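Bumping with the actual sequence this time:
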Amino acid sequence: MILGLGIALISALGTNLSALFKARGAGLARTVEVRHPLRSVAGLFRSRWFAIGWIVALVAWAVHVEALALAPLSSVQAILSGGLVFLAVLAERFFGFELGRRQWAGVLITAVGLVVLGITARAEGQQRASLAALIAVEAGILALGVALVRISTRHDVVHRSEALLLATAAGVLFGVSDVAIKYLTHASGPLFGLVSPWTLVAAISFVISFYASARSLQLGLAVEVIAITSVAANLAAILGGILVFGEPVGSGAVGVSARVLAFCLVIVGAAFMPAPVRVMADQRGQAVAVSVEV
């Protein structure tokens, strides 16, 4: 289990680095349009930064899958949520953002939550998934994600609100995909994973979240959008881990209390991240991180 959490930490670093690359690239790419999905994808990947971001994201995803196979879903997602520490440092040191006290407070709270989570981690026995709970959780979260995307298309929704709605939708749909992948990692036989309906669920969730995430990065501030997406994804996946796989919150009164506190600190710390951030200009007077208003 400890190995799985360590691998999850590497995945968290790659995930946040890739998100910042994609944010820079999405701001320079053609506007994402639902009516022209192929043209939108082509426009995104013509941006060098977006393409680099997705290469890094694919590597991080592969590492993530390995972490899911070795550790409980809720613990892996808590580590990924704590990856906002990496987001803050990378954004300020290498991508030209200046974070305020609120954001750094969120980083410290998240770091404390990670320490508590790591100290209270314990080995788990064989996990068993509840198919009924899996169907209910996947259907409910998928419906929520689609509804958020639909609400974002209303004409009376301003750009910043649209960005946050899409970021939340992308996050919960990433969470749906994570729950499905976790289920497949414990499937009996490699062929089952290829023909399972949960492969289709993961694929559908990924496609919708891809467009929602890219569009949110074009409309909103990068750090704010990435943080919201991360929080939503981890909340959805942690919920799935507890409800679908019956993952214990802890062992004994002290263990349960400590892990509940750890989860709360990680999520609260992540929630502190969304706030106005100032983009610092580079030597040429151009923004290093681009936010496009359409």
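The tokens above came from a reply further down the thread. The first helix runs from residue 2 to 28.
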